Amino acid sequence: MEEIRIVNVSKDFDGFMAVDGVNLTIKPGELFSFLGPSGCGKTTLLRMIAGFETPLNGKIFIGDQDIVELPPYKRPVNTIFQNYSLFPHMTVWDNVAFGLKVRKTPLPEIKERVSEMLNLVKMDDQHSKYPDQISGGQKQRVAIARALINNPKVLLLDEPLAALDLKLRQHMLIELMNIHDAVGITFIYVTHDQSEAMSISDRVAVMNRGKIVQEGPPDDIYERPSSIFSAYFIGETNLITGEVIGIEDEYVQLKCPMGNGEFFEIDSTFHFRPEIGSQITVSLRPEKIAISRHKPKVADDMNVVKGVIEDILYLGSHTQYIVTVGKNNFRVFDQHKRVYFDDTALDWEEEVWLFWHDTDSWLIDELPPEDRMPAEGKSHLSKIKKQSSVSGEQI
Amino acid sequence: MKRFSRAKFFKGMNLTVFTFAMLFLYIPILILVIYSFNDARIVTSWKGFTLKYYGQLFRNVAIRQAFLNTMLIAVLSTVISTLLGLLTALGLENKKLKGRKGFMGLLYAPLVMPDILMGVSLALLFNFLRVNTGMWTVLIAHVTFCVSYTVIVIQSRLEGFDNSLIEAAMDLGAKPSTTFFKVKLPLIMPGVIAAALLSFTLSIDDFIITFFTSGRGFDTLPIYVEGTIRRGTITTINALSTLVIGLTLLLVVFTKRIRKSLISSF
Amino acid sequence: MKNSVKSNKLDYLLAAPTLIWLTIFFLVPYLIVLIYGFLTPDIFDVKFEFNLDAYRQLLDGTYFRPFLLSVRLAITTTLLCILIAYPVAYLIARASDKVKNTLLILIIIPFWTNLIIRIFSWRIFLSYNGVMNNILMRIGLISQPLEIMRTDLAVIMVMVYVYLPYMILPLYSVLEKLDFTLLQAAMDLGATEVKAFFKITLPLSLEGIFAGVLLVFIPSLGTYLIPQLVGDQRSLYVGQVITYKIKNIPRNWPMASALSFGLLVLVAFFLLLGYILLRKSKVRGVV
After folding, report:
1. Does C186 contact B at CB distance below 8 Å?
2. Of A195, A88, A182, A69, which Cα lies nearest the Cα of A131?
């Protein structure tokens, strides 16, 4: 088992930097995801590992070997393509056997390995069918078998579930994880779907504009986003800006303008020491906020803010509230457990209290850009806007 | 009610025109076939069933020679123009090729020129070069008018080609040559066959260009038939035509896939 | 970068044989046609002496009539083909898949049958004591055989017969892709069938009509064989005149060259006209 090292790799298309100086180390046996919006360079990076694109500069190592100069057919990697790319003129069996046949493997061995592989992906009873005779999920399995039979050191998966419907996608996701456990090789998984990346990966690299914005385990990226882009791209969040007015041992104090000349104050734990007087952003996930029509008994380490409900969206597993606090809009996810205070439902225009623990927020040393949109997250944001007409300082 | 009946009227009109068109297309051929079995010297009325014209046909040395010539030219020009067409279509897949547009223009030009112009210009070229006309000049002429068709038919097949299949093959360890012969060629084969069939048909069908580029002593069937019609001895031609029509029928009915790609190349 | 340069080279190499072939056997011959037009005719050949006679005759109206006849024939043939082909193509396009295939085969069989044989069959059909006259007399429609063979009418009939499939197939392939729910939408919005046809179907099938016209009109301009075999020998078409000048003795190759050049210019003119019309209809957003 060898690790993969991507060293300062760049790629341009007619002057446009699709991948821009990426450095990355992927550990042996890891299930690693490239996550980002379309055009962020994730697929280009994958294709450079596969050998379909040549980097402008940089090196890609598998173990000690730089593979940049190798043509695709000499690389110890195999790819699962977005549309599976099964050969339509060959049966399932011939598709799976293709890699061994072109390497002139003896027929008895081919037969044995193919049936072994078809067994692994539960397609042994379909071996004589043609690709247009099997379903999308089955094509996916054949594609996996066809790739894994070559004993690659790395399996590359390019948005492998994009063509499947939701239920099948969830099912295949689990199956992919099982296959990963069974074969134990490194998987590199490219997706634009954050929930896919979160649920399947050991580690994730969030990409934007050809660069890696953040890399780490999924929970780490979710709980501790290093930039406004990661905070927005993964999950949903409230961004609150304010002035640092005090720093204690464990938390900073922020003074946040409400737009009407008044302020509210909040505390947050911190992982770097901001300067007093500087402007800073706090990321606060909507599900961390509690909502109530009664003022909670305040504990020292709780933030409490008063606002008015502007919008209510019933979403099944939870309800989303938009609560205005001055010019700030807070998105709050409230699960339907009526254990607090009283059990009559909250209503539009109602005054409510929002409260959360100091340790539930996360400081980002970055201010939301002037146009109030993280560059690549626009589509993501406009979706939010349509849903809830959020406006104000947070966005 | 009124709307309904009007829709019906339109359908009825279409059907009428269709029936008329079918009669128009088939009655002359049908009569030709029937009369090839008619025991009469001139085509007036039915005088009884006979196969004697078929006998005459098979004993006719000139027809046999013309048939062999036609086949020779058709096979050779099909092979050459299909091969040229395949190579060119593959080369022109590269959309970034400099001068591609000009080349495409040159490929399309023969398609929009009346055949007679190609015939005259080739006749004058061969005269200018003092080449004796015969089999070779006819072959050259046939390749010239077939090659544009083969390129375009194969191109239309390549257009729908999913390039990720090439990447998949290479990814699985196939060298470029293996990839071409095991994946790409088999997948564009219907287009190649359609192109070959089209150029074969064009070749055996051609009269005018052959007329200008063949010399004395090298007749293809259309040239021979035209000469015979002019001289007036047409009874064997009925039989010959019937055979050709029969062959065409067989070809059309039994080549479903090719027919499909022929239609889609329009 | 390195890679693409290499593959460009290979692609040029692949395309080169055809490029060279067409240059030598398609482009250069036209150059020779151009040169031969300015030479002096000889009984069997040409003399390489400069001579303007051929172009003088081309321009002074001596050969005006064959050109006129050819253009007239091409226009008539094309119009008749559109009129017949449109309903046929429409019917096929709207038929169920199974019927559609059968109908298509029916259209393709004549298309694949040898041209000269098809023309020949019409000679039998149309001749003075031929089948059509026989039938018409037997059912009492006429008392004397019609003399259709060797008339302009015969030429037009056979032309339409030969070129009809070339109009039906492109029209069909456009109509087949047409979204017929658009018609329902139009009628839902209150358009009658007639209006829906002229506002929706016809504009959307213009591209097919243009393709068909290209396939029918241009070859019709240079037709030789059909008027030669069924036409009136007193009204000669351009194709026939050119062929006679090349084949008949005394030969007049400079004249044939000049006439060919004239035909080429005519073709170029109509192609340009078609191109402009197509562009215009596209600009108007019709296609």
Report:
1. no
2. A88
